[in-house]
Amino acid sequence: MGSVIRIVLQRLALGLLTLLIVSAVIFGAVNLLPGDFAQAVLGQSATPEAVAAIRTQLGLDQPLPVRYAQWLWDAARGDLGVSFAQANFASFTGRVDPSATVLAQIGPRFANTMFLAGVTAAIAVPLAVGLGILAALWRDTAFDKGANIATLSSISSPEFFVAYILILLFAVVNPVLPSLSNIFPGMSFGERLEKTLLPALTLTLVVTAHMMRMTRAAILNLMAQPYIEMARLKGMRPLRVIWRHALPNALAPIVNVVALNLAYLVTGVVVVEVVFVYPGIGQLFVDSVKLRDIPVVQACCLIFAAAYILLNLTADILSIISNPRLRHPK
Amino acid sequence: MSLWIWLLGALAAIAALAWIGLWAARRLSGNAPRYRDMSYGVAFGYALALAAIAAGIWLWMKPGAVYFRWAVMGFAICAVAAFLFRLAGRHLGPERLKRQFRKMPLTAAFGILVILIYAFVAIFAGWIAPHGQEAVLGAANVVPGGDPAMGGDPAFPLGTDRIGRDILSRLIYGAQNTVGLAFATTLLAFFLGGSLGLLAAVVGGWLDQVLSRGVDVLMAIPSLIFALLLLTIASVWADGARGLLTFYMVLIIAVIDSTRVFRLARSVGIGIVVMDYVEAAKLRGEGMGHLVFREILPNAMAPLLAEFGLRFCFVFLTIASLSFLGVGIQPPLADWGTMVRDLAQFINFAAFAPMVALAPLLPALAIAILTVGVNFVVDWMLHRASGLKS
Questions:
Q1: Is B192 left (phi over 0), alpha (psi -120 to 50) or beta?
Q2: Residue A122 lies in a domain
Q3: Across the interface, do A161 and B67 touch by the CB < 8 Å criterion?
Q4: What residues make up the domain containing B361?
Q5: CATH number, domain at A234?
Q6: How much of chain B exceeds pLDDT 70, in percent?
Q7: Within chain B, what is the greatest distance between any pair of CA atoms?
Q8: Confidence (pLDDT) at A39
Q9: Tell me, what CATH number does B325's domain have?
Q10: pTM confidence score
Q11: Which of residues 209-268 of B touch A (CB under 8 A)?
C-alpha cells in the first residue's frame, strides 16, 4: 500500500509542477503584449509621465521574474487583480471597488459553471456507461451499427450545431424548456435545474458519444480473454458475463475515459455557455477576450487549466488505484 | 415533470411488450429453440426497435413535425447518394479503384463523396456562387424558401442576411474560406509537428527531452482556452487589421495542434528508428535529411495520414468555434461559424415559418457533414489498417 501512496504523491507533485509551469506560460504570453497594462488602462493618448507614474504604482517597472512571483503569490492568496472593464481609472489606482476585482466577477460564475458541469456529468456518465455496455452486448447488430453512426456524428458536430438543434426542437417548436439560461442568485433548485437542462443536454450529447465508444471498446477488448470464454462456456448469460467478469476489469479504462471527458467539458462549456447565454465562467472568458480585459482572461485561463490538469491527474491516479498490478508491484 | 412520467411509462410499456411477446412467441412456436434460448435482454431490444419504428411513423404522420420529415428525407437522400456513388465506383474507372470500392462500407463511400463535393465547391466557388460574398444586395432579411407569400424571394433561394447579402453565395464561399483555412492550418501543423517529432525520434537525447517536455506543458492547457488567450494577445498586436488577425489565428492554431502531431510522429518515428534498414542507412553515411524524408517518413505515412484526417476535423471545428465566438475568421470574409452566430436569432421565428430556421442551421450543418464525412473515411482507413474484420 505504501508504494501506491508514493506513486500518488509523485503524481500530485508532478501535477503541481505542471500547473506552475502553465501559469508561467500564461503569464509570459500575456507579457508578449506590446506596451503594458498602464498603456492599456490609459489609452493611446496618455502622456509619458502619466504612464510612468502608473507603471511605478503597479510595480510594472520591476523585472519580469519579480512580477511573476508577485502575481503568483497574489493569485495563491485569492487576489487575482482588478478587471479592466469593470474598474475605471480612479478606482484602479486609488481605492478598489470590491465588485471590480476579478475574484468578485469570477466567484459566482464559477459556481454556475460547476453546477452545469455537475448536471451534465450526472446525466452523461450513467447513460454513456449503460449504452456502452448495451453496444458491447449487442455487438454487430443494427443497434450497434446505428449507435456507431450516431455517436460518430455527434462527436464530429460542432457544439453549437447540437445546441441550436435542441433549441429548435425543445424551445421553439415544442416550447417545453427555456432557450435562455438566465440564472440569478436566490433561484430555487428546481427552477435552476430547468434553466440548466438544455445546455446540460447539449454537453451530454457531445460527451456521451465519446464515453460510450470508449466503454464499448474497453469491454470488447476483454471479450477475447480466456476467463470470459470460460464464463460463457459454463452457460452464463451474456449480460451477466459482462456485468460480473468484463466490467470490473474494464473499470480502469472506463474511469479514465470519464475523467478525460469531464476535462473535455471544460472546453466544451465555453461555446455552450455562449449559445445559451449561461452566466458561467466560459461566457465571462469570451466576453473578456473581446474586451481585451487581460486580468480576467489570465485568471479564467488559469482556472480552466487548473481544472483540466486536476481532472487529468484524477484520471491518472484512479487508474493506478484500480489496477492491482500497479498497486502491488513485484 | 409530465415529460418524465411519459418517458418512464413508455419504458415500462416496452418492457411489458417484450415480456408478453417473448411468452407468446414461445407458446405459439411450440417452444422452438430460437425463442426458447432467447434471453429477455434480446427480446427487450426487439421491443425497443419496434417502439422506435412506431414512434417514427407516428411522428412522420403528425402534420407539425416538419423537421423530422426533413431529417428522415435528408438521411435517405444521403444514403441513396452514397449507395449510387459506391455503385458507380464499382463499375467505372480503373481496376485498382474498383477493388477499393468493392469492400467499402456505405459510410466510407458517403465520406468520400462528401469530401469530393466540398473540394469541388471550394475550388470553383467563384463560378458557382450567384453573387459575390461581400456584395450587399437590395433586400435584407429575406426569408429562405423563395416563397413570396412567406416573405421570400425566388432570386435568393436561401434568403439574405441582416445587411442583405445572399446566404447561398456566402455558404458557397464559406467552403472556400473555412475549409481552405482549416486545410492550410492542418498542413502547417503537420509540417511543424511532423518534422520536429521525427527529428526528436532520430536525434534523441537532450533535443528529444527539451521538445517533449515543452510539448507536455503546451498540452496541459486546454487547446480552445489557450487559443482564446493567444488570440486576445494577437488582436492587440494586429490592432484592428482583420486580415492580419485571421493570419495570426492560423499560426496560433497550427502551433497548438502541432503538439498533438508531434506526439504521434515521435512515437511512430521511435518505432521505425530501431529498424534494420534505418541502421543500414546510418552506416551508409546518409545525412539527417535522407534519414527523415527517405527512410522514416514513407514508413510512417499510414498512421500520419489517418491522423491528418482527425486533425483536420479538430482544426476545422476549432476554427468554426472560434469564428462562432467572434474571434476567428474575421468579416467580411464569408465563414460558416460567423454565419451561424449572425443568423442565430432567426431560429426564434421557426414556429411561424419552418423554413426560417434553415438560415442558421445550414452553415452549422455544412460544418457537421464535412467532419462526419472525414471521420467516416478515417474510421474506415483505421479499420482496414488494423486488419480488424467485423
A1: alpha
A2: yes
A3: no
A4: 167-385
A5: 1.10.3720.10
A6: 96
A7: 81
A8: 63
A9: 1.10.3720.10
A10: 0.85
A11: 216-218, 220-226, 228-233, 235-237
